[in-house]
Design brief:
This protein is α+β, with helices and mostly antiparallel strands. 16% of the residues lie in helices and 11% in strands. The chain folds into two domains: 74 residues, no CATH class; 55 residues, no CATH class.
């Protein structure tokens, strides 16, 4: 008996074998999200589970540092990893006329960019046209 993806979280919480629903103690060695009652059921489910299993493993190398290595062929367009960005720039506050522009060079607010009147003339990078506060920051 193979469980659907929506049932898999229940399987791990209950500790039931992914194949037969008996008590399972052997986790998938890659994702640790499913368990099996024995090596025979782990082997039996390998081809089915590998389609849902996380496709990469974290490796550590003295020369490369930490990296991810594919453990199976990854299909084109397959989602492998989702994470939130550490920082998103430029932060311009609200999209109103009181928004403050952030310099992409020094990450500081551009002076005079929070006026309540018409938007000020701001320096823009000649390569990408994003806001910068000075010619120095454009070279950063």
């Amino acid at each position: 008996m193979h469980h659907s993806t929506s049932e898999k979280s229940e399987v791990m919480e209950e500790g039931q074998c992914e194949v037969c629903d008996l008590s399972g103690q052997i986790p998938c060695g890659n994702c640790f999200k499913v368990v099996y009652c024995g090596v025979s059921h782990l082997s039996l489910d390998k081809d089915i589970h590998s389609k849902d299993c996380f496709p990469a493993a974290i490796r550590i190398s003295s020369t490369k540092g930490r990296y991810m290595e594919a453990k199976r062929d990854i299909r084109g367009g397959e989602l492998v990893l989702v994470e939130k960005p550490l920082i998103v720039l430029p932060r311009m506050g609200s999209f109103s006329r009181k928004a403050q522009y952030t310099c992409l060079g020094c990450h500081g607010y551009i002076p005079g960019s929070n006026t309540s009147t018409a938007l000020p003339k701001i320096n823009k990078c000649s390569k990408c046209t994003w806001p910068v506060c000075s010619s120095f920051c454009e070279r950063v």
